[in-house]
Design a protein that fits this description.
By secondary structure, the chain is an alpha+beta fold. The protein is built from 7 helices and 9 strands; from the N terminus they run αβββββαααββββααα. The strands form 4 sheets. A 3-stranded antiparallel β-sheet has the order 5-6-7. Strands 1-2 form a two-stranded antiparallel sheet.
Length: about 230
């Protein structure tokens, strides 16, 4: 989530905190608002709830919502639909870049305010499969990009197909994904340094960091064949 936030995405705020001799990752609730009369709860529905889809069907390949359905939900109910569609598509791209395979419909939500005004909630439950040794040739995303789930089979054609299905400008989308892929290694170095300074210095962090750098370069080369691919991730 820190890495996503460093690229300009709106995420749930998180930090590393010490409680005596215990270290923890603390995530601030974004569905609360402080008012003169005290703290109030902002109503939140995950996408499955908003679409009346059973939570057991949260993955697209199990009958859950696809990217186009979620974009139509946002366009119908968001008070700033263009901005929220862009944020959602950024999240799709980010999860492709980091191999975030669990970004299913229950990991996206709508915040509902007064008079039913809605906004896409900050990102949460952002995670990568990269440090755990899975064969990326077989790994699948939770939602199709274009017509493909398989991580390694998603390239420019699938992103262009997704842009067409979402009624978005394909070149603008491709430029945004290339910008993200280019920026991730530098942002990651800063995020990793901050985490270490705060006491989060586990070998898994280094493994994740190295894997994301490698994959970012691979994805960038996939999007721009003129660039040399780095590794097989």
């Amino acid at each position: 989530m820190r890495l996503a936030a460093s690229t300009g995405m709106i995420t749930a705020r998180s930090e590393v905190r010490w409680f005596e001799d215990q270290i923890a990752i603390v995530i601030e609730r974004y569905d609360r608002e402080r008012t003169e009369s005290g703290m109030i709860r902002v109503h939140q529905e995950d996408v499955c709830q908003s679409l009346a889809v059973l939570p057991t069907l949260k993955y697209e390949n199990e009958g859950g919502p696809c990217a186009r359905t979620i974009v139509e939900l946002i366009r119908t109910f968001s008070g700033r639909s263009d901005e929220d569609v862009s944020r959602f598509v950024d999240a799709l791209a980010f999860n492709w870049l980091i191999a975030g395979t669990d970004a299913h419909a229950k990991n996206y939500s709508m915040l509902i305010g007064a008079e039913g005004r809605a906004r896409l909630a900050p990102l949460y439950d952002v995670a990568s499969i990269l440090p755990y040794g899975f064969d990326l040739q077989r790994v699948r995303l939770a939602m199709k990009i274009g017509d493909e789930y398989r991580l390694q089979d998603i390239g420019p054609h699938r992103w262009q197909k997704l842009a067409a299905s979402l009624r978005l400008d394909a070149e603008t989308l491709m430029r945004r994904i290339r910008d993200l892929a280019t920026a991730l290694p530098d942002h990651l170095a800063d995020v990793r340094r901050t985490a270490k300074d705060q006491g989060l210095d586990h070998p898994l962090v280094a493994r994740l960091s190295d894997a994301i750098v490698e994959r970012s370069r691979y994805c960038l080369a996939t999007l721009d064949p003129a660039l040399p691919a780095a590794g097989s991730r």
